[in-house]
Amino acid sequence: MTLHKVRGGDVLAGLGGIALLVVMFFPWYRFLEGPYTGTRDIAANNTEQSAWQAFHVTLVPLVLLALLGIALLVSTAYEHTQAWPVAAQVLTAVVGPIASVWILLRLVNPPGPNFAADRLWGAWLGFALVLAITAGAWWSMRDADRP
Q1: Which pLDDT score, from 0 to 100, does residue 121 have?
Q2: What CATH number has the domain bearing residue 139?
Q3: How many domains does the chain have?
Q4: Distance between the two ends of the chain, CA-based, in angstroms?
Q5: What angle do CA 119, 121, 124 make, to 5 degrees?
Q6: What are the tens digits of pLDDT across the range 99-145?
Q7: Buried b (16+ CB within 10 A) or exposed e, 82-98
Q8: Disulfide check for 75: which of 16, 84, 119, 140 has CB 3.0–4.6 Å away?
Q9: What whole-number distance in Å separates Cα of residue 137 and Cα of residue 13?
Q10: Range of 112's domain?
């Protein structure tokens, strides 16, 4: 392991990926009880849902981005060749904007009936972490050619 090759962007992306996986367990949305819950299965007095409960297809870019951010940090720390870190940088930099737009759309238009969902702090923190992972990947790509 060569920690002297790890740069700020790698650390930002890696720690952001770990934090995003943790934040996905926190409450992201609160749905109203009653007839306005649509097809959501909401138990009495438990109207908050995490990202794992609220999302279906949207989980794919979120989990992929978190794992790519972690892979970026690990591949840079354990690199024997430039191929793995560069691949992780590029993939993270490509998936990051896609996940950012996807989460932004879920913040503007929450899952379920629009008028029956409140966005909680977990959703905003998750969006900030997605932006941090994306910024870390771009920062890492910019610093890759510097000694």
Answers
A1: 94
A2: 1.20.140
A3: 1
A4: 17
A5: 80
A6: 999 999 989 888 876 566 788 999 999 999 999 999 999 998 887 66
A7: eebbbebbebbbebbee
A8: 84
A9: 6
A10: 3-143
